[in-house]
Amino acid sequence: MKALIKTDPQIYKLIKDEEKRQKEVLEMIPSENYTSKAVMEALGSVLTNKYSEGYPRRRYYQGNNVIDQVESLAQDRAKKLFDVPYVNVQPLSGSPANAAVEFAILNPGDTLMGLKLAFGGHLTHGLPLNLSGRFFRAVQYELAGDGSLDFEAIEKMALKEKPKLIICGFTAYPRIIDFKKFGQIADKVGAYLMADIAHIAGLIVGGAHPSPVPFVHIVTTTTHKTLRGPRGAMIMVTEKGLRKDPDLPKKIDSAIIPGLQGGPHDNQTAAIAVSLYEAGLSSFKKYAQQVVKNAQILASELLKYEFSLVSGGTDNHLILIDLRNKKVNGALAAFALEVAGIVVNKNGVPFDTMPPFYPSGIRLGTPAITTRGMKEKDMKRIASWMNQAIEEVAGKEMPKEKEARSKYWKAIRKEVEKNKTLLQIAEEVKVFSQEFPIP
Ligand SMILES: *Cc1c(COP(=O)(O)O)cnc(C)c1O
What are 404-423's pLDDT values in tens digits? Predict the structure, then answer.
């Protein structure tokens, strides 16, 4: 980064600071990962200089001979990897990809059905504040009491509400998703079925989670989570989707441009192509299996420390901890863990009575630490640190009343920041992390 040091030492320094942070902590936010050097080189390439509105061989700008090849290669790799006949690799990120699908097949006021955010759905699955909930009539299903998908209730809602689009695939769901059952329900009511596999795409191509492709019409995914590519997204149409609506590809292409976006980010497209190449290697299969193995060991260790896990454990890369039995709020637990060098996110749990800013749980996962090469025995160590850290804040319950709560939150953070045990764990984590280089 020689040019950057010279031109903008301030930003250079901040990048170095962030690099240091990423090296010295355990990144356990389940939607994050470390992308490869090769992906980053493509992302930082001259391709960022080009305008290429349109699609390969159908552009509004001249000079796209090379870019056409880049985008076609990305498309071919995605089709092969996911076994789909159509893909659009231009969505700038996961949320615009979902908005594009909704825009492509729904008219304002049409009904869409998705899992409620508080139960692990995504903003773009019908949250009232999101475009998906504002411009369409969003009906929202919930999970069963044990944190699993309640297919009886989902079917009942679908029969009653007659949605035009059903969305499955989630943000905070630790179990295998039965896409076949969703497919049967969608077919029964004639709805389009979209699987949003943002979180589990890498597990699917690595054979560590069943694919939705035989059962759904449309698949959307981000490329930067378990797939380990650059920030970005893709929209795919399956054979089943083409049978339901042969115009789906055309509708989706034009929902992206001119519907929602202008020029694609060609450097991002190239980096996606690189990550799709990497995801096709046998080493990636091993990676995906290890992600799940690590999550399962971590879950069983956490259970030994009497953590309460939503749904009782995990089948995938993520774990949702309900902290109510530890008498500590998710926001405070996540803060304490960060002080201890373990980075997770606060998260609501099913039937949470607390607001989203102070939810009752935390969400964590193994994609990034597995990329660093951590294995089963390392998970035991991490669980023990987590337990030690949470013990430091256990019993420090948030006041229920709003004003008292924000006052308390400020004060407790000051206290926790200086906690000797937490800072000691952070030191141990730092030493431990050095054994596991980031790409
Ligand atoms: C992360 C995520 C997205 C959105 O991705 P962004 O790139 O952050 O817009 C969409 N759907 C699901 C299920 C996700 O987990």
Answer: 998 999 999 999 999 999 99
Ligand 1: distance of its center to the CA of 225 in Å? 9
Which mutation among 101, 122, 204, 226 tests ligand 1's pocket best, with the greatest number of atoms within 8 A of CB? 122
Confidence of residue 356 (pLDDT cuts 50, 70, 90): confident
| CATH class belonging to 282-433 | alpha beta
Given the CA of residue 95, which atom of ligand 1 is nearest to it? 9
The single residue of 71, 161, 196, 352 carrying the catalytic annotation is 196
Q: Is 225 a catalytic residue?
A: yes
pLDDT over 90 (residue 56)? yes
pLDDT tens, 165-211?
A: 999 999 999 999 999 999 999 999 999 999 999 999 999 999 999 99
CATH 3.40.640.10 describes domain 42-279: yes
231 is catalytic: yes
Spot the catalytic one: 24, 50, 51, 391: 51
The rounded Å distance from CA 88 to ligand 1 centre is 16
**pTM, 2 dp:** 0.96
SS (H, E, C) the chain: CHHHHHHCHHHHHHHHHHHHHHHHCEECCCCCCCCCHHHHHHHCCHHHHCCCCEECCEECCCCCHHHHHHHHHHHHHHHHHHCCCEEECCCCCHHHHHHHHHHHHCCCCCEEEEECHHHCCCHHHCCCCCHHHHCCEEEEECECCCCCECHHHHHHHHHHHCCCEEEECCCCCCCCCCHHHHHHHHHHHCCEEEEECCCCHHHHHCCCCCCCCCCCCEEEEECCCCCCCCCCEEEEECHHHHHHCCCHHHHHHHHHHHHHCCCCCHHHHHHHHHHHHHHCCHHHHHHHHHHHHHHHHHHHHHHHCCCEEHHHCCCCCEEEEECHHHCCCHHHHHHHHHHCCEECEEECCCCCCCCCCCCCEEEEECHHHHHCCCCHHHHHHHHHHHHHHHHHHCCCCCCCCHHHHHHHHHHHHHHHHCCHHHHHHHHHHHHHHCCCCCC
Indicate which residue of 59, 116, 175, 225 is catalytic: 225
Pocket probe mutation, ligand 1, options 124, 196, 222, max atoms within 8 Å of Cβ: 222
Over residues 372-384, the mean pLDDT reads 98
Pocket of ligand 1 (CB under 6 A): 31, 93-95, 98, 122, 124, 169-171, 196, 198-199, 222
Domain ranges for the chain, please list them.
42-279, 282-433
